[in-house]
Write a sequence for this structure.
C-alpha cells in the first residue's frame, strides 16, 4: 500500500514486517458493509470497544449441516487481514493476506480445520476493504447456497 | 489495477487478454468490483478508500483504488482536505494524501463515547496499561519493535506473531482512548459551544455524547 502501482514494496523499511496493528475503523467499515449485505447476521460487534482486536459476526445458519456459524475478522492499518469462518460442526476456513514464510501473501487456510500449513493461494485478488468484504461474502454465500465447501476458494464459479 | 503485484496469480485464471463472452459469469473479483461501482457514488468510494489510507498516496493512486478518474479524485480530495478529513504532504511536484490524524482521533472518540461512559473508558485505559506492563516484564523488552527483533517473530500465524499484533494494537488503542477521554471532558464542560458556562467540567459525568 505504499508507492504508486507498487503496493507492498518498501513499506517495511524501518518497521516490523508482520501483520501490523489492527485498524478499528476498518473493522467498523467491514461490519457496516456486512450488515447491509447479509440477512443472516445475528450480531456483529467489536470484541472490546475500548481495545478492539477483532470483529465477530454471528450468523444464524451455517454451511451444510451446521445451523450456526461465525466470522472473526482482523484488519490491519497496512491492509493485512484474516477472515476466519467457523461453525457449530467444528469446520473452519480462513481467507488471509499478510506476510507468511513460504506462503503467498494472499493465502487460504482450507477447511475443515484451516490449519496453519499447508495453505493455498487465495482466490481473493482484490485488496480494497469494500471489495475484500464483498468477495468473502460472495464465497460464503456460494458455499452456503450449495451446502458444501467445495470450490469455496475458486474465483470462477463452475457452470 | 488493485490486485497485488508481488506474487504470481496462482489461483487466478487470467482472462484479461481475451474478450469475454457476455453470457460467461464474472469471476468473484470482477463481480464484486462491478457491484461496488454500481452501488456507490464516486465520492463515497473516494471517502471510503481514504478512510483506510495511512501512508500518503498520490491522487492518481487513490483514483485507481476507488475506480474513479484522476480529475474526479482530485476534486473530492480537495473537498475532504477542506473538511479536515484528509491531510496533504508535498513530495516535490506531487501532492500526496492520507487520512488526517485529527479525523482518526475524532472518529474513534465518537464511536467510543457513543458506546462507553468515560468511567468505563478510564478503566479500559488502566487495563491496557497493565497489559503492556505485563508484556514488558514477561518478555524483557520495552516495545513491540524490540519484541519482534529479539524474538525473531516472522510468522503472523504463530503465538508470538499474535502477541506482537496485540501489543501494537493495544498501544495504539491506548493513545486513542486517552484522546477520547480528553475530547469527552472538553465536550462535557459545555464550553466548546459557549454553553453551560457555570459548569467546571471536572465532575464525573456519565453521558457525554
Amino acid at each position: 500500500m505504499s508507492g504508486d502501482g507498487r503496493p507492498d514494496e518498501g513499506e517495511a523499511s524501518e518497521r516490523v514486517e508482520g501483520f501490523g496493528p489492527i485498524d478499528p475503523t476498518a473493522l467498523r467499515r467491514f461490519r457496516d458493509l456486512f450488515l447491509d449485505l447479509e440477512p443472516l447476521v445475528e450480531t456483529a460487534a467489536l470484541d472490546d470497544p475500548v481495545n478492539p482486536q477483532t470483529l465477530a459476526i454471528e450468523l444464524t445458519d451455517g454451511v451444510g449441516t451446521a445451523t450456526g456459524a461465525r466470522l472473526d475478522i482482523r484488519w490491519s492499518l497496512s491492509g493485512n487481514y484474516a477472515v476466519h469462518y467457523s461453525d457449530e460442526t467444528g469446520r473452519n476456513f480462513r481467507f488471509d493476506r499478510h506476510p507468511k514464510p513460504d506462503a503467498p501473501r494472499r493465502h487460504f487456510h482450507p477447511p475443515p480445520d484451516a490449519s496453519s500449513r499447508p495453505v493455498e493461494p487465495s482466490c481473493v485478488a482484490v485488496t480494497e476493504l469494500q471489495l475484500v468484504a464483498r468477495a468473502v461474502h460472495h464465497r460464503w454465500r456460494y458455499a452456503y447456497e450449495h451446502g458444501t465447501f467445495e470450490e469455496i476458494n475458486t474465483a470462477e464459479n463452475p457452470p | 489495477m488493485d490486485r497485488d503485484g508481488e506474487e504470481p496469480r496462482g489461483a487466478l485464471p487470467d482472462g484479461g487478454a481475451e474478450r469475454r463472452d457476455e453470457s460467461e459469469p464474472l469471476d468473484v473479483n470482477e463481480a464484486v468490483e462491478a457491484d461496488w461501482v454500481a452501488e456507490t457514488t464516486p465520492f463515497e468510494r473516494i471517502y471510503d478508500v481514504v478512510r483506510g489510507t495511512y501512508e500518503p498516496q498520490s491522487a492518481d493512486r487513490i483514483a485507481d483504488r476507488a475506480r474513479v478518474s484522476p480529475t474526479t479524485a482530485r476534486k473530492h480530495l480537495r473537498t475532504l482536505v477542506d473538511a479536515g478529513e484528509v491531510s496533504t504532504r508535498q513530495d516535490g511536484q506531487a501532492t500526496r494524501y492520507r487520512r488526517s490524524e485529527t479525523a482518526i482521533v475524532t472518529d474513534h472518540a465518537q464511536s467510543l463515547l457513543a458506546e462507553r461512559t468515560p468511567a468505563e473508558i478510564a478503566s479500559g485505559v488502566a487495563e491496557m496499561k497493565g497489559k503492556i506492563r505485563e508484556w514488558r516484564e514477561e518478555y524483557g523488552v520495552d516495545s513491540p519493535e524490540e519484541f519482534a527483533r529479539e524474538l525473531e517473530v516472522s510468522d503472523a500465524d504463530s503465538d508470538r506473531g499474535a502477541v506482537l499484533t496485540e501489543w501494537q494494537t493495544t498501544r495504539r488503542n491506548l493513545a486513542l482512548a486517552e484522546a477520547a477521554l480528553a475530547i469527552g471532558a472538553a465536550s462535557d464542560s459545555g464550553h466548546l459551544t459557549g454553553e453551560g458556562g457555570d459548569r467546571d467540567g471536572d465532575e464525573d459525568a456519565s453521558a457525554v455524547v
Remarks:
- Chain A touches chain B through 65 residues (CB under 8 Å).
- Chain A has one domain: 9-146.
- The radius of gyration of chain A is 15 Å.
